[in-house]
Write the structure tokens for this entry.
Amino acid sequence: MKYTFLIFIISIGFQACMTVTDKNDAAVWDLQGHRGCRGLYPENTIPAMMHALELGVNTLEMDAVVTGDGQVILSHEPFFNHEISTRPDGSWVEEADEKGLNIYTMPYDSVKRYDVGLKPHPRFPEQKKMAVHKPLLSQVIDSVQAWCERENKPLPFFNIETKCMPATDSVYHPGPEAFVELLMQVIQAKGIEEKVIIQSFDFRTLRYMHEKYPAVRLAALVEGYDSLTVAEQLVSLGFTPAIYSPAHEKVTAYMVEDCRKAGMLLIPWTVNDPKDADKLKVLGVDGLITDYPDRIR
């Protein structure tokens, strides 16, 4: 009798797991490589994405900006960050000059002459140094697809953040509608809509995506909403996204419960300490974003 009951319980548990997985691949506990794997390889570059795949991430997290000629590229800032950038003449970009190197005013042919992998990163000493430039989003997708075909691996998810805010519309980036349309042109041309998550701190992006492209999974990045509950933030957004993504230090058991009630996955950022990852898993998060997939794996 005990044996039969045990088999019954195992069977029910297995079926439940299969149901969750079959309905939504993202329901599998999601290890996301932040900017590829920023702690190990130059951020938001093709080598960083390739190494993250080798480390077994489920999702490649990345940032998107727009060049002066309307190309969508990977970059955390819409300018050349002094921590990682080297000018075409070999000199390092200084902090005082970085915001003047506005990617939104530069054609991609000029952008790719800047190196973002040779300068030693002051906060990531383990990061491998190499000559590399900011890639087109289309090139990243092509490289990932080729790797997956070669290695006979399933295509990962692409968690793409739109780097925009109201204060810098038409200065460092197009408005949210134009930004989204440029981004979706690439995504649709590559046929990966079902493998894409669009995330943003700028709720305008998410509202437009929700209205215009309702089938695309969305993630609300949240910061600075300490006085609001999760439910109140959703009222501000105007709908319930697939994913709620706060700083990992803000995650509580109450937040986990609120996300469950709302039907959202909870995937915090940026978790680099395995002890923090263990605590978050115990709390019940659905995944996490990390600079070091090798540590968290």
Remarks:
- DSSP finds ten helices and nine strands in the chain.
